[in-house]
Amino acid sequence: MKSVYTSSSSRLLFALPLILLAGCGSPEERAQGFYEKGMELIAKKDDLGARVQLLSAAKYKADRVDVWRALVGVEERLKSGPSVFQDLRRVVELDPNDLDARVKLARIMVAGGAADAALKLVESVNDSEKPNAPLHARA
């Protein structure tokens, strides 16, 4: 004999995940919320808290260059070398025209003994027929 409680319990167990997922919002919305909270914490000089929020934003929407740029700033202030390098690589990957990120990344590469790779990274921005004044000013 089937109990009334069993059928309503099974319906509840089936519906509960759907209800929970409905309230979560899209990955874009979640990423935006984490990004905004991270930026608020940066304004309050809470870099550790901001780092957690920004990493959460990147988890939900990994192609947001603004999140990675903010993370670079936080990681630089926290003096987290390997993370800065990885975050800068991600910025350059998402926005190949970000000259500031390329120069910072090239400086890290030179300091790490990878001068040839750094030169290639910077030269890819510099058109040989037309010198890039902003690039030379930053280098």
How does this structure look, described?
- With 139 residues, the chain is an all-alpha fold.
- Helices cover 76% and strands 0% of the residues.
- The chain has 8 helices and no strands.
- The protein has helices at residues 4-22, 27-43, 47-60, 65-77, 81-94, 99-111, 115-123, 133-138.
- Helix 6 (99-111) runs antiparallel to helix 7 (115-123).
- It starts with a helix and ends with a helix.
Structure in a nutshell:
Helices cover 76% and strands 0% of the residues.
Give a count of the beta strands, DSSP E runs of length 2 or more. Answer: 0
The number of helical elements comes to 8
Strand coverage percent: under 5%
Give the biggest sheet.
Answer: none
Q: What is the average per-residue confidence, as pLDDT, rounded to a whole number?
A: 82
Instruction: Label the overall shape.
Output: globular
Provide the low-confidence segments as ranges: none
Order of helices and strands: HHHHHHHH
Global Rg: 22 Å
Helix-strand blueprint:
Blueprint: H1 4-22, H2 27-43, H3 47-60, H4 65-77, H5 81-94, H6 99-111, H7 115-123, H8 133-138
Helix pairs in contact: 2-3, 3-4, 4-5, 5-6, 6-7
Features:
139 residues; mainly alpha; 8 helices; 76% helix; 0% strand; globular
